[in-house]
Amino acid sequence: LHLVALNMPFSGDMRADFQCFQQAQRAGLTSTYRAFLSSHLQDLVTVVRKTDRYHLPIVNLKGEILFSNWESIFNGNGGQFNIHVPIYSFDGRNVMTNPSWPQKVVWHGSTTNGIRLISNYCEAWHTADVRAMGQASPLKTGKLLYQNVYSCSNQFIVLCIENSFVS
Questions:
Q1: Which residues lie across from 61 on neighbouring strands?
Q2: Rounded Cα distance, 32 and 46, in Å
Q3: What is the distance between the alpha carbons of residues 105 and 149, in angstroms, rounded to a whole number?
Q4: Burial classification of residue 30, based on how many CB atoms lie within 10 Å of its CB (0-12 exposed, 13-18 middle, 19 or more buried)
Q5: Residue 91 is part of a domain; what is its CATH number?
Q6: How far is the C-alpha of 158 from the C-alpha of 35, rounded, in Å?
Q7: Could you tell me the CA-to-CA distances from 94 to 91, 101, 107, 158 in Å, in that order?
Q8: Which domain holds residue 115?
Q9: Could you report the per-residue pLDDT of 61-120, keeping only the tens digit for each?
Q10: What's the alpha-carbon Rg for the chain, to the nearest Å?
Q11: In total, how many domains does the chain have?
């Protein structure tokens, strides 16, 4: 399953699932992509189909392994990954080095186990208000689910996960 970033950073007010769907289609990817975010309807841990959570590796756009499988992201260690394996945007840029994402921080709105944090998910990703808060992770920590709280006015990286494998 591919983990890919949106082509630009977003504040806490985003239509992330739609953006993931649209940008994946524009990139010629045929699978369904969902935002790597907890929402008011769904915890992050359940975004990928149950049948695909254990046996498929999570890879970047070039097929390099980020995680052994979906479940391994949520084992309580904060989604530890190798920071030397790049995360690419749908248009092929490395979000860890490209200046289009000046803040190398990823929105997620979740606990380390992928459960939504209602107090820290930018009002279900519908506000960029400076007083509202969202949970996010600095990539330099090597953890996708590091537990930092930021104002929803920040423009951060938004990731998308291929939520079902199509061979």
A1: none
A2: 15
A3: 11
A4: exposed
A5: 3.10.100.10
A6: 7
A7: 9, 9, 17, 13
A8: 1-166
A9: 999 999 999 999 999 999 999 999 999 999 999 999 999 999 999 999 999 999 999 999
A10: 14
A11: 1
